[in-house]
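Running co-folding for adenosine-5'-triphosphate.
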Amino acid sequence: MAAKTIDELISLCKRRGFIFQSNEIYGGLQGLYDYGPLGVELKQNIKNSWWRELVYERDDIEGLDASILTKQTVLNYSGHEDTFTDPLVDCKNCNARWREDHLEKKICPGCGSKELTEPRPFNLMFKTNIGPIDDGSSFAYLRPETAQQIFVNFKNVVDSTSRSLPFGIAQIGKAFRNEITLKSFIFRVREFEQMELEFFVTPGEDEEWHTFWVNERLDWWERQGVSRESLELYQVPQDELAHYSKATVDIMYKFPHGTEELEGIANRTDFDLGSHSKNQDELNICSKIKHNNDSNAKLAIKEPHMKDWIVPFVIEPSAGVDRAVLAILNEAFHEEKIEDSKRLVLRLKPHLSPIKAAIIPLKKNNPEMVEMAKKIKNQLQSKGLGRVLLENTGNIGKSYRKHDEVGTPICITVDFESLENGSVTVRDRDSMNQERISKEDIEKYFLNYF
Ligand code: ATP
């Protein structure tokens, strides 16, 4: 099941503290959102799952956390200054601005007028000034993708880890795009996070690796609770490919507002490493790139068995964290009829749940019960699986409802019998089954969920 409309998700996110409009008390700032107490946990858990599977569980990927502010030359040689644009049109009637390629007909979606200007390229990169003097040459960009900082650190990573091909560099971090039109809550925003892997391979092996990563990524999404039926693959046509790409496959998800890109997996060839290398004429670069670079690095690799230096090709699975949050929330969203009422339950995979278990004293003013609940909380918290919450509202029905809605896999209730023999009641979110378990079994029962 999924939400019927995006508004159902927006309402849940606001009510339960997942996501808020940014700068809300001053009227908000368009295209920006803040992650609240539960949103920050969900987002962190998604990122951890990606990082764990790629960097920790594989042996061929290193991590990186590079700067957001990016030197102009990097984004010049990467091609972003020239090509990272969307076609902008103005409505001559109401002055609204639109992205031309997103208009179904050449009609202003605001007022219906057909009087639109000719499209002109609008660069999506945000500029800022570095240092105290703003003389027009001291500007830097907020990175529009995390990838470029991986490419410019290629030599640092190779030299410090002695990696040989194939290997990857992974990074999670913020990216900024001055999008012309915003869309559907956190789907298209101006400040977002990306989880990007640049996987460097020997030229000629790139197509095989491309297929490999498309399949790996599909499997990962399924492990996050996004069913295969909600996903589609889209082979981006040649005339729509980004300037660096030889082939791109998008993983599309059936969002409540329509089927759209969740992750892009591109074969970026040797374009980026080639573009950022010095003495390009001496390297055997396949891509068409600008020459006369002023970098001081040769972003190439020569292993003992190789005769010449080679510039690796790169396969890039690039996923948006915010779109992941939206897709995962949507997939988990279930509304069930129970007798004559409704139950809203988020069937999140336990490793993604913002709260791993809620420990609930039956009576909030009973110090012995509260004390025992605190002890259980501390015991389970020490397992390091994420947040365990002491839920001391004194209203058990309300607490169950809340934890169903935020996807907490189990609730553990401490009652009068607990004070006598240490046993507790555990309630499973999905089945709503309740059972009594002994003090000794609490930890094992909890760990079984993860
Ligand atoms: P779109 O066509 O939807 O604008 P894109 O092809 O420009 O996306 P990429 O440059 O491939 O996107 O970026 C990789 C991923 O980063 C996307 O699959 C998406 O998940 C995420 N992403 C890109 N732009 C945004 C944005 N404005 N807001 C939220 N996430 C974004």
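Result summary
The chain has three domains: 6-84+130-329, 85-123, 353-447.
The chain has a mean pLDDT of 93.
Job closed.
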